[in-house]
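Page 47, continued from p. 46.
Same chain as before, 789 aa.
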Amino acid sequence: MPPVTSLRDVLRFSQRAAARARSRVRPGSAEARIRATDARFRAALDASPDACFLLGAARSDDGLVSDLVFTEANAACETLYGIPARDLIGRGLCEVFPGVRDSAVWTHYRRAAETGERYETEYKTRDPRARAEWLGLQVVAFRGADGVIIGLAITARDITARKRADTVRRLLHDVTATISITPDAAGALGAALAAMCEATQMPYGETWLPIGNAGVAWAGGAVPGDKVPTGTLVRGPAWHAPDDDRLAAFAKASAAYTFAPGRGLPGRAAADRTPAWMPDVNAPGVDYPRRALAQAAGLRSGLAVPVIADGRLIAVLSFHARHAVAAGAAELELLSVVGRQLGSVLLRRQAEAELTRERSFLRAVLESLSEGILVLSADGTYKLANRAMREFHAAPVPAEGPDEWRGGREDLFRADGITPFPPDQTPLHVALATQQDVRDVDIVIAPARGPRRAVVTNARAIRSSAGEFLGAVCASRDMTAQIAAEQAVRESEARFRGVLEQIRAFAVQVETGGRVTFANDALIAATGWTRGEVVGTDDLARFISNGDEMRVSLARAAATGDASAIPAHLENEVLTRDGARRRVAWDNVLLRDANGRISGIASVGRDVTEERHLAAERERLVAALADLAEQDELTGLSNRRGFGRMAAQERRGAARTGRVDAVCCVDLDRFKAINDTYGHAAGDDALRAVAGVIRDTIRDADFAARLGGDEFVVYAVGVARDAGADVLAARLHTALAAHNRSATAAGRPYEIAFSVGATEVAPDDTLETAIARADAKLYAAKPGRTARV
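Result:
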């Protein structure tokens, strides 16, 4: 190809090349097939949603790129740029887009055309003909047969939707970050309004709040008289650009207005529950009661967004600008999303206010309970004790903050005779120290004045919604009358447990509610959990992976009396403290109380982890040996046996569905010369390289095999009838040729010669018949060879 030095040379060369091609084309010739391939390529190019260009490089006498000439353009060019493809061909880039030469983009285009450097960018379109707001651009140089860069391939994609989505995320992030640090609903509403005004560059914004049964004082809005109907919108917080007296006057005057649903801009948004906008509030016939105020303030357009949460209208945000606003669907959807986000936050603020009002009610409920309730903060400071707890301690003190209850935690309970506790180890103290729950612990309260009381105590850690430890609450129930009977039961159980502690098998006892009442030393030692972490807790999932399922089964058995809900023999995994899993085979026995009701389960287990592991390992080795029997060791592809099995399976599927499949044979030419010249290691490398190219080229549904020596075969599942086999062969031929070029350029001293042949698999073909037909085509394509039979 002669060097191109000017735009005229580019056009003249293209015309001469086209004329020569037309004069030589004969039906059925290679040129005709190339033209058919070009036609298919052109059809695929036009089907692409991306705009694709090919530009030839016009060069000046000194060899520098002076312009780029459009030589190809697909149909998507008009969709994105508003320019038909036929109007581009033969014209220079700088002619079609005059501003390119004076921009920084031209430098990148020239560098790509002169050095082959790839260029990618995203930009906002400024050309009025363009039909996309944002475009993503990719520029790649292409070279001629001699390796010289002859032009650029440019792909442009519409990325407007993604850019708008980014805008939504940024605005949501800014608004959420702003309102999350405000302490109340009114502050959150005002902060969100200011953030949205600044983000959308609106000089004025205001909130409109619906009147309910309790007014709108929660958000700082005025509460009008009884004559204003429920649902009417009143003005809440407003924001305007700083130091703008006209906007300040507009805000002050607007505070006296109210809007019924459907009236004015805020009323329309409230009634429809969707954003509403007015391009020109001063236009005749527009329902905008504040027209005179807007004209005085220099405001022209308006936009209103409803703030909705859980189906409730929380507020309406209204924005005004000094110019015409052409709000499209994307912008309205953006503001709708922000409105919903803001509604959720405001609803949470309302809930917090209601929670404050409910605290007094909660305290009254606590005072009426028969259980003693005591609350301490994280540092041990007394916060609350209800009437029952004060009676337990014979302490006639008020319910909040008495000094005599502060700082003396070690004297709050005294352990005596039932469950011994060292100082500061009562359930409440343990919960404070460990920040964990302590359940169902028997202790004795022995106040200086008043009777001793035996109580069962639960202590629970108190945490914020963010997981911060705030303190602990202790609930105590008077159990004095039941102590003697429970003591007798414990003595009986102690004898039973003594026996279980001596056996080497695992032993555990669980109540129907899921609480572990006993675990022997063998189970404790094997799992690594302490006895306190297992016994006395109902958290079966701590050391049994299906603990929740077991708890449900126990509860169902207790409720229905159905003993079959608990299998007599089962295996499950026991979780150790370090996260390991041990497989245990359990024998289960149901326990019943004096009335015959199911009260729990006693289980004895044997660790079968190693047995199951050995069995699984044997199965894995058998499967691995089976895989090796069907795999070529050198290339990692299937061997002839594996290929035959998979192909037989696909043949059955094709017979059921009428699908057309194909086989393609690949044979290495002059492979022996590689072995003789460079050694068998090089020959093995060549076979592995060809196998890798085939593996990377075929589809996920297809599969390949090495039949032996230098022969490979591909089975393609579901190809186009009549042309699919040829397309498969061409794709493999192209991929192998590309590999040769790249490997030779990288310094490999030999080229891998190959031949490819493919054929469709006919319904009445055997696999061997189809491979033989593809092999015949392969040999017919070999240079200087004829088909073998």
